[in-house]
Specification:
globular; alpha/beta; two-stranded antiparallel ribbon; Peroxisomal Thiolase, Chain A, domain 1
Length: 421
């Protein structure tokens, strides 16, 4: 008897929506202040000095670390953990969920990081050197501080969450990837409420500054607020920044049942790999990542209203990304293209999540924030739709595409839609 082959149709997945946002960035400690700074053209980059490297520039957060922790807890933990605790608690408060009566075993935490543990190890080795390398002075909290799951784990301890928690190492694509992981775990039924996004403590490790400087990729400018300048002909590198952004994610039916405010819906996403170089991006793979995310979202390039670029302000990286965008978006597209790093620098593991947050209010006010510090657009970065130096009113915003790319060739794209029943 011959077998009949049928095309497999996967079951429909639950729709996932964003219901709360908690963040700290170099230009604001909540969504309202972060967004206002973007519309006003206000940079959060400032002068900074770090051991061995000396004077440089950075995006520094100024949030209230004691809002959700006491002084002993802050000293015992890590900067990344503190940022995670602040952002997670703020997201829960913003979501309006009945947190006290929520089953914490059904809450998951999924936080992207670029790196973790370097800060603590550098500091401990330095302290050791001050005591003739007597290991008795080594901090006994070093191991829990440096394990890869630390930021999400610290948040779980602080909030009494007993569901799954982990961090995702995804270089500078990590903020997007935390969001993707949270959505997938909700769809798989592994949790009922997800805290997802990214965090970074990168400005506290001299190694990152030293490495970028040795590569000639560390931004310099006499005016710190003008140092981060993606697409500009005089761009000269990355401004290293810290930050955090966490979303509460829920299945649509759960969000509607409790009358939650919905910021947007995750319609599609994609992660792929260049597999070509440690550092240099591959525009062919980047464009494929964007196209796959659009396909999964069920929309075309012509449907996209706002695209948030990853562009870091390096000479080659910005050119390669624009090359990737040209492969996807042609003259028939009405997309408005912007960049958030020009305001806050590169927040590494938090970058993608923070950059998305800055654009989400566009669903309500129909305004696209600009890329600032573009005094002279590099011809090789020119593409139709770039919004430069001043915010632009739009007729309507229905779809936002968020790009994040990272070292070792990891690419991620998330498509968010204005919520509609």
């Amino acid at each position: 008897m011959a077998l009949t082959h049928h095309q497999y149709t996967p079951p429909a997945l639950p729709r996932i929506v964003l219901t709360g946002i908690g963040l700290t960035s170099p230009n604001g400690n909540d969504l309202a202040s972060h967004r206002a700074s973007l519309l006003e053209g206000k940079s959060g980059v400032q002068d900074y000095e770090i051991r061995y490297v000396g004077k440089t520039l950075a995006g520094i957060c100024d949030y209230d670390a004691l809002r959700y922790q006491n002084r002993r807890e802050v000293r015992r933990g890590t900067r990344a953990g503190s940022i995670a605790i602040y952002s997670c608690n703020e997201a829960v408060a913003n979501s309006g969920i009945d947190w006290e009566n929520l089953d914490k075993s059904r809450v998951g935490i999924y936080l992207g990081v670029t790196e973790h543990g370097n800060v603590e190890t550098e500091n401990e080795v330095y302290e050791l050197s001050q005591f003739d390398y007597d290991i008795s002075v080594w901090n006994h909290f070093h191991n829990p501080r440096t394990v890869a799951n630390n930021p999400a784990g610290e948040a779980a301890l602080n909030m009494g969450i007993t569901g799954p928690h982990y961090t995702l190492g995804a270089a500078c694509a990590a903020g997007n990837n935390g969001l993707i992981q949270g959505a997938q775990m909700l769809q798989l039924g592994q949790c009922d409420f997800a805290l997802a996004g990214g965090v970074s403590e990168s400005i506290h490790t001299f190694g990152i500054f030293a490495s970028f400087k040795s590569q000639g990729a560390l931004a310099e400018h006499s005016d710190p607020t003008k140092a981060s300048r993606p697409f500009d002909v005089d761009r000269n590198g990355i401004v290293v920044s810290e930050g955090g952004c966490v979303y509460t994610l829920e299945r649509l039916e759960d969000a509607l049942a409790r009358g939650a405010h919905i910021y947007g819906e995750i319609l599609g996403h994609s992660i792929n790999t260049d597999a070509t170089d440690f550092v240099l991006p591959n525009p062919e793979r980047q464009s494929q990542c964007i196209q796959l995310a659009l396909q999964r979202a069920g929309i075309t390039p012509q449907d996209v209203d706002i695209l948030s670029t990853h562009a870091t302000g390096t000479i080659s990286g910005d050119i390669q990304e624009v090359s990737a965008l040209r492969k996807v978006f042609d003259e028939s597209c009405k997309v408005s293209i912007n960049n958030t790093k020009s305001f806050i620098g590169h927040c590494m593991g938090a970058a993608g999540a923070l950059e998305l947050a800055g654009n989400l209010p566009s669903f309500v006010d129909n305004v696209c924030h600009p890329t600032i510090n573009v005094d002279q657009l590099d011809d090789e970065c020119a593409i139709e739709g770039l919004i430069l130096n001043e915010a632009k009113p739009l007729d309507d915003v229905r779809y936002i595409v968020n790009n994040s790319f990272g070292m070792l060739g990891i690419n991620s794209t998330v498509v968010i839609g204005k919520f509609s029943t």
